[in-house]
Amino acid sequence: MKFAKEPIIPLRLFLEGGNVLAMFLASLFTGISFYALLYYVPLYFQTIMSVSAIVAGLKLSPLVAGIVIFSAVSDILTAHTGNYRIWILLGFALTTIGCGLLVTLDENSNQGKPIGYLFIAGSGLGSCMQTSLIVAQNAVDFKDVAVVTALCTFWRTTGGVLGVAI
C-alpha cells in the first residue's frame, strides 16, 4: 500500500486513540447539540410563541450567555487545576438536561422556562466546546496542532449537519 509522505490528515491521529479520538467524538456531539439548538429553538419561538424572527434570535441570548460564561470559567479552572474531564462530563450532562427540558416546552409555557432551559444548555455547551479543543491540541505534538484544530472544527461542523438533519 502506498501512502503520501506528508498527508493532510495524518492517519496516526486516529490510530493512536486516546484523548484525540475522544475529543473528535466530543466535537461531533457538541456540534449536533449546538447547531440543532441554533436552528430549531428560533423556529419554536416563531411558530409556537408567534414572535418575529428578530425577537426569536434575541431569545437565544441565554444560550449564548451560558456558552460565553461557562467557556471562560471552565477554561480558567482547567488551566489552574489541570482537570479537564470534569468540565467535559459536566458540559455534556448540562447540555443533555437543558435539551431535555426544552423538549417539555409547549404553547402554554411561560417566557421564563425557555430562558432558564437555554442557559442550562448553553452552560453545558460552553463547558465542553473549548475545553475539548484544548485537550485535543495538548494531546499532540506541536506539528499536529493545526491539523487537530481543523479536525475538531470539521467534526463540530459535521455534527451540525447531523443535528439539523436529524
TrEMBL record:
Keywords: Membrane, Transmembrane, Transmembrane helix, Transport. It is a multi-pass membrane protein. GO terms for cellular component: endomembrane system; plasma membrane. GO terms for molecular function: transmembrane transporter activity. SUPFAM superfamilies: MFS general substrate transporter (SSF103473). It is found in: Endomembrane system. Gene3D superfamilies: MFS general substrate transporter like domains (1.20.1250.20). The keyword Transmembrane applies. InterPro entries: MFS (IPR011701), MFS_trans_sf (IPR036259). The chain crosses the membrane at residues 20-41, 53-74, 86-105, 117-139. PANTHER family: MAJOR FACILITATOR SUPERFAMILY (PTHR23501), VACUOLAR BASIC AMINO ACID TRANSPORTER 4 (PTHR23501:SF191). This is 834_t:CDS:1. The lineage of its organism: Eukaryota, Fungi, Fungi incertae sedis, Mucoromycota, Glomeromycotina.
